[in-house]
Amino acid sequence: MEKTIHIAVIPGAWYSHLVSILEFSKLLVQLHPDFHVTCFIPTLGSPSSASKSFLQTLPSNIGYTFLPPVNPNDLPQGTSVECQIHLATTLTLPYLHQALNSLTLRTPPVALVVDSLSAEALDLAKEFNMLSYVYFPPAATTLSFYFYLLKLDKETSCEYRDLPEPIQAPGCVPIRGRDLVAQAQDRSSQSYKFLLQRIKRFCSVDGILINSFLEIEKGPIEALTEEGSGNPAVYPIGPIIQTRTESGNNGMECLTWLHKQQPCSVLYVSFGSGGALSQEQIDELAIGLELSNHKFLWVVRAPSSSASGAYLSAENDVDLLQFLPPGFLERTKEQGMVIPSWAPQIETLSHRSVGGFLSHCGWNSILESVMHGVPLITWPLFGEQRMNAVVLSEGLKVGLRPRVNDNGIVEREEISKLIKGLMEGEECENLRNNMKELKEASTNALKEDGSSRKTISQLALKWRNLVHEN
Ligand code: UDP
Fold this sequence. Notes:
The chain is α/β, with parallel strands linked by helices. It has helices spanning 15-31, 49-55, 81-90, 93-106, 123-127, 140-155, 190-202, 218-225, 251-259, 279-292, 328-331, 345-349, 363-371, 385-396, 412-423, 425-445, 451-469; strands at 5-10, 35-41, 62-66, 111-115, 131-136, 207-210, 234-236, 266-270, 295-300, 336-340, 354-359, 376-378, 399-400. The chain folds into two domains: 5-237 and 448-469, Glycogen Phosphorylase B (Rossmann fold, 3-Layer(aba) Sandwich), CATH 3.40.50.2000; 249-443, 3-Layer(aba) Sandwich (Rossmann fold). Bound molecules: uridine-5'-diphosphate (UDP). It is an enzyme of class 2 (transferase).
């Protein structure tokens, strides 16, 4: 009988990271049915309903266990969301140790695959005699910049945002210091310290799996995988996206509305699983949508002074429509639809009525947009999203980036202008053509002879051989 190959997987305590590493696991066991994955999930507070319903979709050869949750209220006041995510893993390491110990006694895993936000768990791989891998859900550009940051940190004394020239990491589009990952914007912060520690850990693993593919990020992927680069082995295995999404409370209603619209006529507006805007910005966005005269489907959240502020409070019972400008809903009732908190994003982006996506540029949203051929307005909020916005608008030319005023606000006229550029005329045609090419390339990467599919098989073979040799 064929031996089963066991893999242990640790996600990060963030919805899109949990989904991404498990979608990869699903693909792995689907392509290689002799594999079995066991997943230990760090959590911050109680798991969201979207996470819970996603976990229901796992096949029987992927098992999962929640680690004891870390309560955000027990953490020091003012701890940033990034640090909270970090602590969700570090504070549960003793439980993870126990869980891996008992798993190893029953069915020893050959490899430990750890999400980039849970890198602290990598140390356990050696102890339990497993190969160690980082699963890196963001772009290859981000990874290339991460490695480059170790060098920059030694060579630069000022804040990166004060550097006069854009920064050029190997193979990447040049990125201005102010567009670097949010944790690198204040070098004296704890978030920056955690980030550097994490990147240093990445340097000593057996491999890094990135959710990207050659055709979308040729430069950074070639630089990362170049012999002599000094990096660990990098495996581009993307695009890994969900095949269907949690529909939320208003999913059916929103799809019914989309069925009634003209092909490619609707702009979908969403800021990921936890992105939030200030009240002033919500007002400007609402009026900007109205002024554009284009159809829209907008997922609204409560206002927050923190751009990732909705992540930990996404499920409260507040009436979110109260945050819209007076009269807006009445005036736009023929023009758009507003849904609170959550939309079935995959079903929305794959709908023929959707012709544009105003997105916060989370890498999952970007890949989902690419795989469904929808060009974007790139409106980054936090994390590495500013870097993604540069890749899309300046590198791949499939997105338009709004200008932000001195107070950090994108004004209504700018919003309306960009929506028109995205949805009509020559600019729209160019963006759609560029996106069409990328869509084709992304589909090819996952075909049987595609680059990413081959990479996954190469990894599976390596793990299988190791088990059979022992
Ligand atoms: N998502 C969704 N409905 C929503 C908002 C988000 O289904 O209303 C899903 C989306 O399809 C994507 C994920 O949540 O898979 C968001 O991931 P991304 O990396 O874009 O952003 P993050 O949530 O990490 O900021």
